[in-house]
């Protein structure tokens, strides 16, 4: 048993010595620099000359900067109510009280009729938002209008009073927009 | 007394807010958290089956065809991907929508309309880091485009050029390198950084022909040739070219940027100080030479 341990120790000693020998061995070491001529080159100027910091100030061109200021909010259109613009956009002419309901424009002055589409089940729903006042009156009028225009037997539509919305199953964006435009919204 | 109390209660009711999203909430106990069903309401696997993708959600990679050579590897090359690493994408803008932006006062018409003015409307999302090059004009709605504009966009077709010039406007297509484009898209954020306005780079090799062509109204084309092409296009489509020199807003219509300039009236190398409302211009001749066109 003890002989076995001894032999192990000696082996370890031998391997350690070998390592030591390798470390102390006299081998040729490269001592010359990577680039021989680098010391002959002029020293690099890493300071920025003072003349770079010299500037002249001017306010003459400030109106060009003012032109770049973005607007803080969406501007109000200057078009008269009911006037049809070249793009087809019409400024709202209806006032609250003209109808039992009132549909206000979206913040960007567009008619709030939207199409929701779920592609993978091919589901289309049309939404009218911002319906203030009697939502159900608008629902009935819209139902009549769509039935005359589209001749559909089934019109699946409902009013969400707390959400101030009307939901119609199907794609009726153009018809509903036309309906709201006719009433001046 | 009782009637007074009732009236008070009714008055209070009238003043109370209507039922709306703001004051609606479900009844106590109405909302139940989803529970994992047992037995016939789910079973041990809950629809995920046993073994495989269903159970482990380690779905096959996109395009893998379970042993077939996938479609995307079946053919040696697809020509429509040629040079895809160089191509830029552009945010589309229809002429009809441009007219609507003007009608609803979203866009100023008393100053030249460039990428900065268009992006200030916040109606576009342009990200130069995603290899977007700016805005391209689409010909939808050219029939009712009536505005007289000095337009500068990054891509335009012949139909679009016709519709702009027929109304007495001018159009230029100009290239912005990603750094200049980022500065042009949000100049306020750029000025707040307190760095000098960069020099706009020239277009890359694959775009230099497009931006030097007077037919495209390129910003590198010779102005006399552009004027000739304006006349040629008017002859081709049979409309009378309005004379810009006699127009009341001639100055605005003829305002042009230098190919190295990003903002109208502001030279590369200048620093805009928004706090003190001054512009700092370098005087060092080396810097002036560096930023010179």
TrEMBL record, chain A:
<keyword id="KW-0687">Ribonucleoprotein</keyword>
<dbReference type="Pfam" id="PF05046">
    <property type="entry name" value="Img2"/>
</dbReference>
<keyword id="KW-0732">Signal</keyword>
<comment type="similarity">
    <text>Belongs to the mitochondrion-specific ribosomal protein mL49 family.</text>
</comment>
<dbReference type="GO" id="GO:0003735">
    <property type="term" value="F:structural constituent of ribosome"/>
</dbReference>
<feature type="signal peptide">
    <location>
        <begin position="1"/>
        <end position="16"/>
    </location>
</feature>
<keyword id="KW-0496">Mitochondrion</keyword>
<protein>
    <recommendedName>
        <fullName>Large ribosomal subunit protein mL49</fullName>
    </recommendedName>
</protein>
<dbReference type="InterPro" id="IPR007740">
    <property type="entry name" value="Ribosomal_mL49"/>
</dbReference>
<dbReference type="GO" id="GO:0005762">
    <property type="term" value="C:mitochondrial large ribosomal subunit"/>
</dbReference>
<keyword id="KW-0689">Ribosomal protein</keyword>
<dbReference type="GO" id="GO:0006412">
    <property type="term" value="P:translation"/>
</dbReference>
From TrEMBL, chain B:
<dbReference type="GO" id="GO:0005762">
    <property type="term" value="C:mitochondrial large ribosomal subunit"/>
</dbReference>
<dbReference type="InterPro" id="IPR005749">
    <property type="entry name" value="Ribosomal_uL15_bac-type"/>
</dbReference>
<dbReference type="InterPro" id="IPR030878">
    <property type="entry name" value="Ribosomal_uL15"/>
</dbReference>
<dbReference type="InterPro" id="IPR021131">
    <property type="entry name" value="Ribosomal_uL15/eL18"/>
</dbReference>
<protein>
    <recommendedName>
        <fullName>Large ribosomal subunit protein uL15m</fullName>
    </recommendedName>
</protein>
<dbReference type="InterPro" id="IPR036227">
    <property type="entry name" value="Ribosomal_uL15/eL18_sf"/>
</dbReference>
<dbReference type="GO" id="GO:0006412">
    <property type="term" value="P:translation"/>
</dbReference>
<feature type="domain" description="Large ribosomal subunit protein uL15/eL18">
    <location>
        <begin position="95"/>
        <end position="172"/>
    </location>
</feature>
<feature type="region of interest" description="Disordered">
    <location>
        <begin position="23"/>
        <end position="56"/>
    </location>
</feature>
<comment type="similarity">
    <text>Belongs to the universal ribosomal protein uL15 family.</text>
</comment>
<dbReference type="Pfam" id="PF00828">
    <property type="entry name" value="Ribosomal_L27A"/>
</dbReference>
<keyword id="KW-0687">Ribonucleoprotein</keyword>
<feature type="compositionally biased region" description="Gly residues">
    <location>
        <begin position="39"/>
        <end position="52"/>
    </location>
</feature>
<dbReference type="GO" id="GO:0003735">
    <property type="term" value="F:structural constituent of ribosome"/>
</dbReference>
<keyword id="KW-0689">Ribosomal protein</keyword>
């Amino acid at each position: 048993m003890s002989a076995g341990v001894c032999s192990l120790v000696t082996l370890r000693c031998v391997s350690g010595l070998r390592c030591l020998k390798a470390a102390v061995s006299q081998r040729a070491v490269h001592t010359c620099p990577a680039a021989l001529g680098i010391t002959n080159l002029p020293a690099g100027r890493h300071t920025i000359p003072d003349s770079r910091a010299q500037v002249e100030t001017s306010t003459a061109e400030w109106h060009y900067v003012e032109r770049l200021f973005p607007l803080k909010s969406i501007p109000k259109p200057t078009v008269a109510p009911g006037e049809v613009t070249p793009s087809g956009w019409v400024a709202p002419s209806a006032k609250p009280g003209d109808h039992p309901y009132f549909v206000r424009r979206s913040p960007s002055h567009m008619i709030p009729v939207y199409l929701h589409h779920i592609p993978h089940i091919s589901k289309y729903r049309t939404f009218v938002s911002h319906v203030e006042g009697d939502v159900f009156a608008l629902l009935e009028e819209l139902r009549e209008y769509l039935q005359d225009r589209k001749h559909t037997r089934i019109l699946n539509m409902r009013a969400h009073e707390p959400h101030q919305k009307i939901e119609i199953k199907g794609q009726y964006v153009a018809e509903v927009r036309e309906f709201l435009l006719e009433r001046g919204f | 007394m009782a009637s007074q109390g009732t009236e008070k209660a009714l008055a209070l009711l009238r003043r109370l807010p209507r039922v709306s999203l703001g004051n609606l909430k479900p009844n106590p106990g109405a909302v139940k958290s989803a529970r994992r069903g047992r037995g016939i309401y789910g079973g041990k696997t809950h629809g995920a089956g046993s073994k495989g993708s269903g159970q482990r959600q380690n779905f096959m990679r996109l395009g893998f065809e379970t042993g077939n050579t996938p479609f995307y590897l079946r053919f040696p090359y697809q020509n429509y991907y040629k040079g895809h690493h160089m191509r830029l994408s552009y945010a589309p803008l229809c002429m009809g929508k441009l007219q609507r932006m003007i009608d609803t006062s979203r866009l100023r018409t008393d100053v030249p309309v460039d990428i900065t003015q268009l992006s200030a409307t916040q109606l576009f999302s342009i990200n130069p880091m995603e290899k977007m090059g700016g805005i391209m004009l689409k010909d939808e709605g050219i029939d009712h485009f009536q505005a007289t504009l000095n337009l500068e966009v990054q891509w335009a077709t012949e139909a679009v050029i016709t519709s702009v010039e027929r109304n007495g406007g001018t159009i230029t297509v100009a290239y912005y390198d990603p750094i200049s484009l980022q500065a042009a898209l949000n100049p306020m954020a750029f000025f707040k950084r307190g760095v000098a306005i960069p020099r706009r780079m020239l277009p890359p090799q694959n775009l230099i022909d497009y931006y030097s062509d007077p037919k495209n109204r390129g910003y590198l084309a010779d102005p006399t040739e552009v004027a000739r092409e304006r006349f040629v296009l008017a002859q081709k489509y049979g409309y009378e070219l309005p004379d810009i020199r006699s127009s009341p807003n001639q100055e605005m219509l003829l305002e042009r940027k230098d190919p190295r300039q990003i903002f109208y009236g502001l030279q590369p190398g200048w620093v805009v100080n928004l706090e003190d409302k001054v512009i700092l211009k370098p005087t060092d001749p080396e810097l002036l030479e560096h930023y010179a066109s």
